[in-house]
Design a protein that fits this description.
183 residues, alpha+beta, 4 helices, single chain, elongated
């Protein structure tokens, strides 16, 4: 089968297992990261790599999130660089042990979709469509970790899983259900 979805965001997280003095970390100059720390508006230190897309958000608890990577390898490379630089500057032993939590993918159903009918076909208990608040239809099957957003244009976002085969199957399932209902 042809791949119908494109990864746009890889999201990961982990805990370093220790509390971090964010004020001290925010005053360090890093070679490969620009940092931002504005505790009155966001509780973490934001690390933006100068060349790669992923952004690391580090919190006082030692927990962090990383998002914005277009691939698992780019996300892991950014996090490894983060561990090396921050570990070297702070003398903390940081292990580049990253849990990939989920992918955000996009695709195209290659036809326009009438969203009120799609809501019925996919199940009104598992969909949410309020066009005056948001132009897309949210689809969250109760027995799955993934969810999807469909748009009238036929664009689709599927995320919530770190496994492309599951996301591809979700896309196929949605496409098939809509086709079976002439949507």
């Amino acid at each position: 089968t042809t791949i119908k979805l494109t990864i746009h965001n890889v999201v990961g997280s982990r805990s370093l297992g220790i509390e971090i003095d964010l004020h001290t970390v925010s005053n360090i100059e890093f070679e490969q990261f620009n940092i931002q720390y504005e505790p009155e508006s966001f509780s973490g230190v934001v690390f933006r790599h100068m060349e790669l897309n992923p952004t690391v958000m580090l919190f006082r608890s030692g927990k962090f999130n990383i998002a914005g990577g277009g691939s698992v390898s780019e996300t892991r490379e950014t996090f490894s660089t983060f561990c090396t630089e921050v570990g070297g500057a702070t003398k903390l032993e940081l292990q580049p042990d990253l849990e990939i939590r989920y992918f955000v993918t996009t695709g195209q159903l290659e036809r326009e979709v009438y969203l009120p009918a799609a809501s019925v076909a996919l199940g009104v208990d598992e969909t949410e469509y309020e066009p005056e608040q948001f132009p897309g239809l949210f689809y969250r099957p109760g027995d799955q970790n993934w969810f999807a957003i469909l748009f009238t244009s036929g664009s689709i976002i599927v995320d919530g899983e770190p496994d492309m085969s599951i996301l591809e199957s979700a896309y196929e399932e949605i496409d098939q259900t809509l086709l079976e209902n002439n949507i």
